[in-house]
Amino acid sequence: MHEQSISQMLDALDRKEYSCEELITHHVDRIHQLDEQLNTFITHTAEQAVTRARVLDTARAKGEAPPLAGIPIAHKDIFCTEGVKTSAGSHMLDNFTSPYDATVVEKLQAVGAISLGKTNMDEFAMGSSNENSYYGAVKNPWSETAVPGGSSGGSAAAVAARLCAAATGTDTGGSIRQPASMCGITGLKPTYGRVSRWGMIAYASSLDQAGTLTRSAEDAAILLNVMAGYDPKDSTSLFMDVPDYTQALNKPIDGLRIGVCQEYFGQGLDPDIESGIQLALKMFESAGAVISDVTIPASQHAIPAYYVIAPAEASANLSRYDGVRFGYRCESPADLADLYQRSRNEGFGTEVKQRIMVGSFALSAGYYDAYYRKAQQIRRLIKDDFLAAFKKVDLIIGPTTPTPAFKIGEKSEDQISMYLQDIYTITSNLAGLPAGSFPVGFSQGLPFGVQIIGNYLDEARILNLAHRLQLETDWHKMSPEEFS
Ligand code: GLN
Fold first, then answer.
1. Domains identified in the chain, total number
2. 126 lines ligand 1 (CB under 6 A)
3. Chain segment 22-69, per-residue pLDDT in tens
4. In a domain, 225, yes or no
5. Lower CB density within 10 Å: C or N end of the chain?
6. What is the Rg, in whole angstroms, of the alpha carbon atoms belonging to the chain?
7. Which of 130, 168, 175 gets mutated to test ligand 1 (max ligand atoms within 8 A of its CB)?
8. Is 173 near ligand 1, meaning CB less than 6 Å away?
9. Strands 72-76 and 166-170
10. Which residues span the domain enclosing 187?
């Protein structure tokens, strides 16, 4: 069962090959047997999941099952879930039980998807390796000495190890695409505003976007159909119709104009990744796509701009964790200042504290113009470069990450080389564009993906091209031996 895609599971449920309860119990058992070694979950909700499966089986027997009834999923622990601990990977929220559901959680629940639990993540989504979690590092199912990528590392590793059919994630600078690439699965970050951020614990609000971690582009389309759409509770969500993303999957790609981003093929790119992407391009070309070069010159400034803007927004967002209203509170504070200081000092991890300090510094009077304003100007230039490129091409292609998954501990002392892992992903967050990562090969036994970036609201076109790739290759069907 666990090797099936969402649509195969739905077919099997319809044909009564198994019940929702059997499907859920099977995945719950796998989690019990296999997750101790991977550490992909922070919280299990097995009992609630089985109870819900029984309810959905009854509904199905009456012909009243909602469209995704029984599909086993998991939520990144950044999404608020009513009555269930929501930690954001932080000691600060270790004692926090959300009083309400995030819109994404609510929508998936309404169509019958069943959550098996909350997945591990870098603290407050800050990281590229999932080593910054209060709950310990997640292991990559393809190699237990390797990181799964971050910050949605628990979600990506759980899907790759076939512990659930799909999972939610968030992407502020690459946190869906990067772990998807490193775990050999499909990850899609939609256009900023396409999916509601309500109930998603904020990291950098102008960049954060919820999306999907799945086995295939088809599964991503199925989930995006549910997750996308206007939400009056999120003032930045787009007031626009949502297309049926599954409709465009099989469109022919002849005449599709694909741009190869020149800046993405320079120094530091693993040669196997480069040749994997070239092979995919050849395949697209023989299916009729027209390939040309494009350039995003301002992308060379993307990392410094991102690492000013994201910490600046984080410093404001994380000021709410003061030990007073919710979350961690230190023992016996001497006075109010001591309460604030010790609660924040003991509640936050090192990376989070560093970013709060960098962000506060960048926003302070006297430095605002030199750092924050300049970073916002770079952001505008990156957006303009993309808009110019999208006058010539329909989609842009490049690698997702410069290397396959690195070893646990390898980069934790070297912040710059960790931040450089985001070099190909953060440009689309800065511009607000949709982008996905799709498995396209292996390097040193570890998977990697090709990144496809689309114009605003062009998720359907990204998924169309990715589906074509997945019709012609089997990379997305491969699973790590121990977990197949
Ligand atoms: N690695 C980036 C960071 O640490 C991106 C994280 C994310 O997308 N949430 O900020």
1. 1
2. yes
3. 999 999 999 999 999 999 999 999 999 999 999 999 999 999 999 999
4. yes
5. C
6. 21
7. 175
8. yes
9. parallel
10. 6-253+435-483
